[in-house]
Amino acid sequence: SQQGEEDPQALSIQEGENATMNCSYKTSINNLQWYRQNSGRGLVHLILIRSNEREKHSGRLRVTLDTSKKSSSLLITASRAADTASYFCATDPRGANSKLTFGKGITLSVRP
Amino acid sequence: GAVVSQHPSWVICKSGTSVKIECRSLDFQATTMFWYRQFPKQSLMLMATSNEGSKATYEQGVEKDKFLINHASLTLSTLTVTSAHPEDSSFYICSATRLVPYQETQYFGPGTRLLVL
Questions:
Q1: Contact between A34 and A85 (Cβ < 8 Å)
Q2: Is there a contact between A48 and B104 if contact means CB atoms under 8 Å apart?
Q3: What percent of chain B has pLDDT over 70?
Q4: Which of A29, A98, B18, B99 is the most interior residue, by most CB within 10 Å?
């Protein structure tokens, strides 16, 4: 069953704008991960945030985690047309070889 | 980096035939590999967890006799779709975890698109 629930399901923005995507989950986690998938391709790992972390940065990406609300957000700053893809959050209940549960995904379109 | 490959990248077959998909970790040893399937515009659904040298663990609702998984070495896992039918048409993706050095990240293959006619 899917645990993560992203919103919005689809997001269309202009190049240069920021994109914010949210993910909610239901059970306890060891970490939460965000992935990107270009159309018809495999997944690319973007960033991992552990349950004891609240915020993490990687380049133009900023991820927050609120375990009390069981939610996470992914912010992409200064978006580019190349950021157009589907984005998934995935929860890891135990860490290290445990199963990931993916959300339904968000389709991001960045208009040039 | 950690690279995972899949072969073939796409396959078209007739109903009733069997199809084998390979998943390889190219530059690291993967004691655990995962197999997912993804329908168009949907999320990834975990099918099974494959551990080297032992039987795969299947998710509820996944027929183990239909989807045969073999993890013969630390760098190779195979998924065989037996007696494929049109409803098995999907995008199959594998992933692998790397323990040396320890990383929690799963590295995903590029996927295999299966079309059963």
A1: no
A2: yes
A3: 94
A4: A29
What lies within 8 Å, CB to CB, of A107 at 6+ separation is A9, A10, A11, A86
SS3 assignment for chain B = CCCEEEECCEEEECCCCCEEEEEEECCCCCCEEEEEEECCCCCEEEEEEEECCCCCEECCCCCCCCEEEEEEECCEEEEEECCCCHHHCEEEEEEEECCCCCCCCEEECCCEEEEEC
Contacts of A94 in chain B (CB under 8 A): none
Among B15, B6, B23, smallest CA distance to B88 is for B15
The closest alpha carbon to B34, from B53, B16, B57, B54, belongs to: B57
What sign results for the dihedral spanned by CA atoms B71, B9, B14, B58?
Answer: positive
Give the nearest partner residue to A42 out of B31, B93, B105, using CB atoms. Answer: B93
Nearest to A97 among B44, B45, B97 (CB): B97
Task: Answer yes or no: is pLDDT of A50 > 70.
Answer: yes
Residues of B with Cβ-Cβ distance to A41 under 8 angstroms = 110-111
**Which pLDDT band, with edges at 50, 70 and 90, does A12 fall under?**
very high
Chain B residues touching residue A99 (CB < 8 angstroms): 34, 46, 49
